[in-house]
Specification:
This protein has 522 residues and is mainly alpha-helical. Helix content is 49%, strand content 5%. The chain has 21 helices and 7 strands. Helix 6 crosses helix 12 (305-329), helix 13 packs across helix 14 and helix 14 crosses helix 18.
């Protein structure tokens, strides 16, 4: 706790909905006897995008459980709930400042550029000092990332990741990477056998307690018009539950995670994935304890290096890198549209009523669970949106709305950069696009689908295949200079003009159906 005396006006400790760590630097800088924690629920924040009801319920339930923990730990908490009718975060904070007349407001840096600007403006208007603290939850501060980025022509996660492994001594044997390689991606791309996943241990779910049931009931009537089902809600909403989820993943699913982490299977939304992102992003878990648990499993011989390195790469590598990119390039990053795409998001993204079986599967499970794993998000949803020329801002809003683990600092660069290549290569070295052949190889989604991924044109041709070759033909000049695209561009060059024209006509015919669907739903 802080060392200041308890004499004088209190400080307000603003705790945002994604800052639920019990070891928060903001709490450490304050005193329970003197200072007041402020937590604010507002419909405006929860509906900044048309959020999945499980996402809303997770934030609210986790916040209310954290409030109970704070009060039991001796903190004074000024909690504004949805029932109080506060219109927005600015109003809630301004009202708390008026009630307590604080000496200053303490906060961890926000996870969203807009929210940080909003809090700063509110404190300025109220003539109250604001002290913003680095969020020690992350391995890498914003200043450290800026130092990493300085002077680099391109930012690449692989180099950043290796730098952090060395700096922190994670999965290192002396000065060499454990297992003799930095990267085991090639060992982690196997498709599932035709018999499907074997020995799959279900992820640990948590039956809602009384407080969470109250939240679910409230969300059901307050946000009745929002997408998503609530009946299966079983996400961790407390630190204790998050720790149980971590332990179960490490013991039961991490050993099998690596080899098939890029695989997809019908009616199996989770496979061996950790489902820990929501707990990490709400800060119920610390990434250090997650990475340490995974490395211990490797050192004890309980999980192979390919599984552990693949998982650590996601947490220490990609998660930290993406946060750095967000703060390094915001606010301009949120406006990027490298390909100039403007097509509206199809209405069936909110219903899953499409005859493309892979998209029906992934969107359907997302609406049911508020979840899809990284390959489903990247190579099904993101891939389609790039190939179909969907407006990146509409795709960003959808990704932020439908996934329970979505917070802007992690969602925006993943969507704009990795999934859509709308940043022109700031995050990824090439567009992550594929024809239907990749989907058939990595899943069983194509079984029973009306479309054939092997066909490039005609009514039965898979839309992914049609659009893939259309995209390459349309962007031939730009993509032809990318070394990672050279081989596939040569395939396009082998075809005669009539075949290319047939593909373009077939792809355009499919895109016309998207426009018709949009018009019908307007």
């Amino acid at each position: 706790m802080g060392t200041d005396t308890d004499v004088g006006p209190p400080r307000l400790v603003l705790v945002l909905g994604d800052q639920l760590s019990r070891d928060s630097a903001a709490l450490a800088a304050a005193q329970p006897a003197r200072d007041v924690v402020v937590m604010i629920e507002t419909a405006a924040e929860l509906t900044q995008v048309w959020s999945h009801r499980q996402r809303i319920a997770l934030f609210v339930a986790a916040m209310r459980h954290h409030c109970d923990w704070l009060r039991n730990a001796g903190w004074q908490v000024d909690y504004t709930s949805l029932a109080d009718g506060c219109p927005d975060l600015s109003s809630g904070l301004a009202q708390a400042i008026a009630r307590h007349r604080p000496a200053e407001v303490l906060m961890l840096e926000a996870g969203e550029w807009r929210v940080q600007a909003l809090v700063e403006a509110c404190c300025s208007d109220a003539c109250v000092p604001l002290r913003r603290l680095d969020d020690a939850h992350f391995y890498v501060t914003r200043a450290q990332f800026a130092e990493h980025a300085a002077g680099r022509r391109q930012l690449r996660m692989e180099y950043f990741y290796r730098e952090q492994r060395r700096r922190l001594g994670v999965l290192m044997d002396g000065d060499q990477p454990a297992g003799g390689k930095w990267n085991f991606d090639r060992d982690n791309r196997a498709a599932l056998p035709r018999s499907g996943p074997q020995g799959l241990e279900p992820a640990l779910g948590f039956a809602p307690d009384a407080l969470t049931r109250e939240v679910l009931d409230e969300v059901a009537w307050r946000f009745a018009d929002h997408p998503g089902e609530l009946s299966g809600f079983d996400w961790p909403v407390t630190r204790e539950q998050a720790l149980q989820a971590l332990a179960q993943f490490i013991d039961a699913r991490l050993p099998q995670f690596g080899r098939h982490q890029d695989a997809m299977w019908q009616d199996e939304p989770f496979l061996w994935h950790s489902l820990l992102a929501s707990s990490l992003n709400l800060k119920l878990l610390d990434p250090r304890e997650v990475v340490t648990a995974a490395e211990r499993a490797y050192r004890a011989g309980a999980a192979g290096i390919e599984a552990v390195e693949g998982f650590v790469r996601q947490v220490l590598g990609w998660r930290e890198f993406i946060r750095g990119v967000y703060w390094h390039y915001m606010p301009d990053y949120a406006t990027l549209n490298h390909f100039g795409h403007t097509r509206a998001l199809p209405a069936w993204f909110w219903s899953a009523r499409t005859d493309m079986h892979c998209l029906a599967q992934v969107i359907g499970q997302t609406l049911t669970h508020g979840y899809a794993h990284h390959i489903q998000r990247l190579m099904i949803v993101g891939n389609f949106c790039v190939l179909a020329g969907i407006d990146p801002r509409q795709v960003d809003a959808w990704f932020l709305a439908v996934y329970v683990d979505a917070i802007e600092w992690v969602q925006l660069p993943n969507t704009t950069g990795m999934a859509l290549f709308a940043d022109g290569g700031l995050v990824g070295s090439k567009p992550y696009i594929s024809s239907g052949a990749y989907i058939r190889r990595m899943s069983n989604y194509c079984q029973g689908c009306r479309y054939d991924p092997a066909l490039r044109s005609g009514e039965r041709a898979c839309p992914f295949t049609r659009l893939y070759w259309r995209f390459l033909a349309t962007h031939r000049d730009a993509l032809g200079t990318n070394p990672r695209m050279a081989q596939v561009m040569r395939n396009l060059d082998r075809w005669d003009t009539s075949e290319v024209e047939a593909i373009l006509d077939s792809a355009d015919a499919f895109l016309a159906t998207l426009s018709c669907d949009d018009a019908a739903s307007a």
